[in-house]
Amino acid sequence: MEKLKSMVETIKRSSAKVVVTFIIAQDAKALMQEVVRQNITDKQWLANDAWVTFAAVSVPQNIPSLAGTLGFALRKADIPGLGSFLTHILPTTLSPDPDPFKPELWESLFGCSLNITGRQQTLKPCLGSEEIAVGESMYADVAQLRASYNVYKAVYAIAHAIQDMLACSPERGPLINGQCPDVRKLHPSEYIGRVNFTTLLGEQLYFDENGDPPASYDILNWHVTPQGKVEFVNVGHFVSSQGSGGQFHIDMDRVLWGGGQGDRVPVSICSTPCPAGTRKAVQKGRPECCFDCFQCPEGEISNETGTGSIDCIRCPERFWSNSDHTVCLPQQVDFLSHNDIMGIILSIMSVAGATLTAATFTTFFYYRNTPLVRANNSEVSFMLLLSLKLCFLCALAFIGRPVAWSCALRHTLFGTSFGLCISCLLSRTVVVLVAFRSTLPGENLMRYFGLVQQRLGISFCTLVQVLICVLWLILAPPQPAERGLMAGPISGSVYQRGDIVIGGLFPVHVKAPEPETEFQDIRRAYRWLRTMIFAVEEINSNPHLLPNLTLGYLAADTCLAESTTLSTSMAMVTGLQVSRAGDGCKSAPAVPVIIGDARSSSSMILADTLGGFDIPMVSYMASCVCLSNSLKYPRFFRTMISDALEAQAMAQLLQLLGWTWVGLVSADDDFGRFAMQILTEELRGTGVCVAYHQVVPKGYAMEKLKSMVEIIKRSSAKVVVTFIIDQDAKALMEEVARQNITDKQWLANDAWVTFAPVSVPQNIPSLAGTLGFALRKADIPGLGSFLTHIRPTTLSPDPDPFKPELWESLFGCSLNITGKQQTLKPCLGSEEIAVGESMYADVAQLRASYNVYKAVYAIAHAIQDMLACSPERGPLINGQCPDVRKLHPSEYIGRVNFTTLLGEQLYFDENGDPPASYDILNWHVTPQGKVEFVNVGHFVSSQGSGGQFHIDMNRVLWGGGQGDRVPVSICSTPCPAGTRKAVQKGRPECCFDCFQCPGGEISNETGSIDCIRCPERFWSNSDHTVCLPQQVDFLSHNDIMGIILSIMSVAGATLTAATFTTFFYYRNTPLVRANNSEVSFMLLLSLKLCFLCALAFIGRPVAWSCALRHTLFGISFGLCISCLLSRTVVVLVAFRSTLPGENLMRYFGLAQQRLGISFCTLVQVLICALWLILAPPQPAERGVRENRGPKIVLECDVGSVVGFVLVLGYIGLLASLCLLLAFLARKLPDNFNEAKFITFSMLIFFAVWVAFVPAYISSPGKYSVAVEVFAILASSYGLLLCIFAPKCFILLLRPERNTKKHLMAR
User: Which molecular-function annotation in GO is an example for this chain (predicted)?
Assistant: First the structure.
């Protein structure tokens, strides 16, 4: 236990997150119990087959520590019939059983006792009815048949061996002299090792020389079910066959990783990989995975991450490491300039010294006859001052850029002037010394040191210095030199003679100081150069293409600089000179055509320059749209696809994926500007809007780059479209990764989509899922072996000056063929280049190389067509053919149309552009954390077509962390149906707000600009998405409102009839007689008509109902008010006539009342008759033409507003008179004051009808009719209740008050 505890503590303390085991099942059980006890949950366990499916280990208490375990298990097999065979057994009653294990199995399975041995048993006896079910016990579990399957195969192997032995033919057996084994003994050992058969389950079985079968493992992963149990999930397999090392497959997406990592692969490393700019050094006494990281020394870099660089790379000539030691930057040329502060100060001091010396000279000359000057030998003083002035002035020769004359001048002038100066001083010193010596008696030395002797001495000393300087200038003069440069080979050229020599320009080295870039490995561009050589040699060996002509080549390094490119190309076309390693400047054959250049900017310069020489050029990498101009560049062709087609393809991709809100990033050159111009033109009118357009700054100024990336980060656009070169992409993505932008979908152009320095691990979180267009990948037969079958020669220099450098770069050794001091180990000579092991020999992604290959073949076909030219049918004037001696194929290159050996058709359009053929690449991340470029589609354009686009959406891994979901990149969410969009002020058309369609208008499409007005008799639904037929609406008998009003109308008529019956019953009583019973009955009859006329307003309007409702209303109310007016007048006159001399009642008798009522009613009848005759009311639909609502209101149009107003006005006039007269009679005696009740009824009448007007106008549809009906019923109820309710109360409830005495009491 102590040892086990100590062992597990070691596992727990270790930084290793992965534990690999080779233990038996019981060991695993004991170990995992201690692991669980110590709560170790951060390890990824790798189990061997002995315990990976062991049930005693995969118990619930072990799950926290072992969930996610990966292990190898023997292949699982489903042996037909084995399950039923295992379950169809019963122990016999014999003792002992022929199979002694059956009883024990039975008792173990069912926990009972068979008691067939006579042993004392504590278990219950078995009943005999027990049955073994498949899968219910470990014995009958056939779901994980692994060891059982091995037993099964072992039996069959023996059987096959016995069968082979029995089939042995004499003299052909395996024993001595071909003897067969003794059949009686049946020893199959000689045959078992030779069996080779396929089992019934389809697996091949055989044994190798060691008696081992082929390996066949299932890779199991421990998943935890919702029930908390372990499920062994098969996530892969490992199979080895005869002669192979094994095939391994694992489905990473199905793996649940241990250590609590879930779907993330655990990281188990000893030391974090050394970042770029450092090298790793293994820690002493520890494995190679444990190391320290040390900064690279000055002048050396390491630009690899992941595994970490072992050594730092020394920067090439004229380059020096940056502060991070990650890239080599061009060394700045430094000298003491007149513009430097130090140079200015020293120049001022020099001029000031010369001026001061001149002033001293002037002073001494002015006082030359004074004793002080004369005593100091004025002539030597003047000579000394002159030499001092020269000393001051010679300092100016040391300031400024060193050139040949200044280098010679500065040192000779310095030596001569200081020699003269010191000679003068020496002369004066000697004279002073001798002068004092000559004062002694007898001394006369001064005669030897007079003025003449002094001149001679000074001249002699100065002449010696002059002679030294002259010899120096003649023999080895001072020259301008650069200090601080490292020795290295000078970029040269590769030449092969031929009848026609094809020129080639390749950026094998990068020395361009603007913009600053890192040193480029020569392996990529050198592969392009070698591809050109391969194509030339392939054509020369082709008997069908240029059979009687040999092609040669002259390929040179441009150093990716315009100046070098131009000078090299001029040397090629003029044949005057070319830089070749070790040969200096020599003559070279003039080339009639050039393949190059790699950059668009250089190609523009070359096309302009070489056009004057009538020299065509075929570029393999220049893609700028600006070069598609046959008028400006008539001799320019290219096998590289124009950016215009790539821009078209990108525009189509954006439309296909619905990305309408995108950001644009371009290079700060013609390539980026022209590409963006074409892209924006392609996007115009497609609904795709640009959120921003950023330009990668030249020189990659950090502040500008940081600001640019911050704009990308803040933008709501999730898709970023780029047109930048590879170095721009590298600088940009480093800043993107630094700011941790992981939510963008990047669309890469072909310049950087496969650029290795961009697809480094640190960029993966930001760039995983990137989509990009890449040149068509090709597999050029034989190129791989051609690239690898090279060796640098021992000659110095090598005919191919790039081979030694390539060799040293590939193998990290030194050939030391130039005699230079080397720090690398010497090359052994046994090194071999393997296909795919380096960027140079990687033929898996041949894209630019394939363009070079096609360019050579295009030139070869043009030359063949030119040589086949027939007189009078040539392309020149009068059908002339080109001069065969000059072989200028420019007229023919544009007309080539051939199929390459890879089956691709190649031709050039009128602008010298080839058809587009792009692979659409998607950045997938491998389990090892590296980028894999997966081809998910293609874009092909043929002559006269806009391009065929295809993408397999199921294979795409989308960027921005979206996985298998297409990212959404929109400025505004599309307006749903039922709304319209309105562009936000000052923003692109993709940014808009959504507004609901007004009533009666719809939009049935997403993103509608305008709403559509519904046709006549239709109205929009509540969502404004469809037009529905308008419903015909009117006040129906089935409506709740109609039913209520109908009930009120019938109830009012019934109440009126009851009142009429009551009055008729009590017609002879004083109360009824006093109230003029005849008029009361007439009033009640008119009120009943008023109630009943309301029913005419309810129901579907038709012609007769419209005519009836208004006329019946007018006449019934006219009769009603006329009766009230008559009663009011009679009451008023009756009380007035009680005065002496008054006899007015004779004019207001019953006959007069009838006449008055009839007259007033007749006027209303005449008005209604005229109304019906002239402009009768008619049924009408309201809201059809106006589209005022979802319903068509069916109503009665009054026909004549005048007639309607006259009817209402007349009723109002009668009611006003009645109110006025009743108001005058309000103070009559209470017992007989009917005028008070009439006043109240009229007030209610007026209140109702005054309120009716605004309510009627503002009520919609059928509710206006309901308002009118309600007004009729309310006014009718007001009249009935105010006038007749008090009387009915007395008649029915207070009959004692219905007496003449009571009525006449006051």
Answer: G protein-coupled receptor activity
CB 892 within 8 A of CB 862: yes
Helical ranges in 657-701 per DSSP H: 670-683
Query: Which of residues 790 and 1014 earns the better pLDDT score?
Result: 1014
Peptide bond into 103 cis (omega under 30): no
Is the backbone peptide bond immediately before 515 cis, with ω within 30 degrees of 0?
yes
DSSP conformation letters of 907-958: E--TTSPPPPEEEEEEEEE-TTS-EEEEEEEEEE--TTS--EEEE-GGG--B
**173-206 tens-digit pLDDT:** 766 777 777 656 656 667 788 888 888 887 888 8
- CB-based contact 605:587 (threshold 8 Å): no
Strand partners, 980: 995
Spacing of C-alpha 1063 from chain mean position = 94
Pairing of strands 247-250, 230-239: antiparallel
pLDDT exceeds cutoff 80 at 145: no
**What distances in angstroms separate CA 33 from CA 29, 51, 53, one per listed residue?**
6, 14, 16
Say how far apart CA 69 and CA 560 lie, in whole Å.
53
How far is CA 639 from its chain centroid?
30
Distance CA 1223, CA 1215 (A): 12
| Average pLDDT of span 1150-1154 | 77
- Beta-carbon contacts of 138 under 8 Å, excluding residues fewer than 6 positions away, are 55
Give the Cα separation of 70 and 48 in Å (integer).
Answer: 9
H or E stretch including 280?
strand 278-282
Q: Are strands 1178-1182 and 1191-1197 parallel, antiparallel or unpaired?
A: antiparallel
Contact 296, 278 (CB under 8 A): yes
* Cβ-contact 1120, 1090 below 8 angstroms: yes
Give residues with Cβ within 8 angstroms of 748, minimum separation 6.
Answer: 722, 729, 770, 771, 772, 773
User: What angle separates helix 1262-1293 from helix 1234-1258, to the nearest 10 degrees?
Assistant: 160
pLDDT the model gives residue 1042:
87
Q: What is the DSSP letter of 1189?
A: S
What's residue 797's pLDDT? 53
- Return the higher-pLDDT residue of 1235 and 1067: 1067
DSSP state of 840: T
Select from 1084, 553, 477, 522 the least CA-distant residue to 804.
522
Structural contact between residues 665 and 696, judged by C-beta atoms closer than 8 angstroms: yes
Residues 265 and 925: their CA atoms lie apart, in Å, by 12
pTM: 0.49
User: At 702, is the secondary structure helix, strand, or coil?
Assistant: helix
Residue 600 confidence (pLDDT): 85
Residue 840 has pLDDT above 80, yes or no: no
More confident residue, 519 or 1246: 1246
* Confidence band, pLDDT 50/70/90 cuts, at residue 538: very high
Per-chain mean pLDDT for the chain: 81
Mutual orientation of helices 1201-1224 and 1234-1258 as an angle, nearest 10°? Answer: 150
pLDDT greater than 90 at residue 771: yes
| Other residues' Cβ atoms within 10 Å of the Cβ of residue 97 | 17
Tell me the two tokens of residue 414: 């310095």
Taking 3-state DSSP, the helix, strand and coil percentages for the chain, each rounded to the nearest 5, stand at 45, 15, 40
Beta bridge partners of 120: none
- Assess whether the previous peptide bond of 597 is cis (omega < 30° from 0): yes
Give me the DSSP letters along 604-618: HHHHHHHHTTT--EE
Residues 981-1011: tens digit of each pLDDT: 898 888 888 899 999 999 889 998 888 889 9
In 761-880, beta strands by DSSP E:
771-775, 813-814, 825-826
Which of these, 1036, 1030, 1040, lies nearest to 1181 by C-alpha position?
1030
**Residue in 293, 288, 281, 283 with CA at minimum distance from that of residue 325:** 293
Rounded (10°) CA dihedral 1271, 1272, 1275, 1276: -150
